[in-house]
Each structure stands twice: as structure tokens, then as C-alpha cells.
Amino acid sequence: MRPYDVLLMADYGCYLWSNSPQLQRLREPMERFAQRLGVSSALIAQLESWHSDWEEVAYSNRGFPTPTAEREWTVRGWVLTQELQRELGSDFDVSYWHAPGGERSARRG
Hints:
alpha+beta; four-stranded mixed beta sheet
């Protein structure tokens, strides 16, 4: 069986995505997608904080205050992606959109 694809990507109003047809019924409302996948409340809180930081930057139209702040946010997202992969397990392939050099899978390294 092929793993379910899940993508961590900050966007307006949402941070977790999937194109896997089997997961579509869990996506509505999007705000509860992580919970419906079985992600722990502690990790959901961290994901929401990471996403909130991005929304603050995005809605301000100013970008990150420094290149260092942007790098720290990007690294934090990758760490969260790896934790999400651990929690969801081998039935999932969790990728991170904001990885340096392009999208990167936590399952495949």
C-alpha cells in the first residue's frame, strides 16, 4: 500500500494539506485536519504557533524581520515535519514545502 501524502505548508488559513483521496473526508473543516489524522494536541499547538508566525509575516506584507528569523522559522518547520512523520507513522509520507532547495520528505530524508 502506498503511504498517504501529507504536506506541511504555511498558507492563508491553513498549514496541513493532502491530495490523497482517502484523506479527503477528513479535510473539512481544514482547521481540524491534524486532529482528525490523530496528531497529538501538543504537536498541533506547535504547528499552529509556527503557522501563526508565518501569517503574521504574510499579512504584514513586510516579510521576516531578518534573514536569521526566516531561517529559524524554516528550520522550526522542518523539525515539526519530522515530528509529524514520527506521530503519523509509516502509513504516511509527510513533506515540508518550505525546505531549502524545495519540498522535502521527512519519510525519505
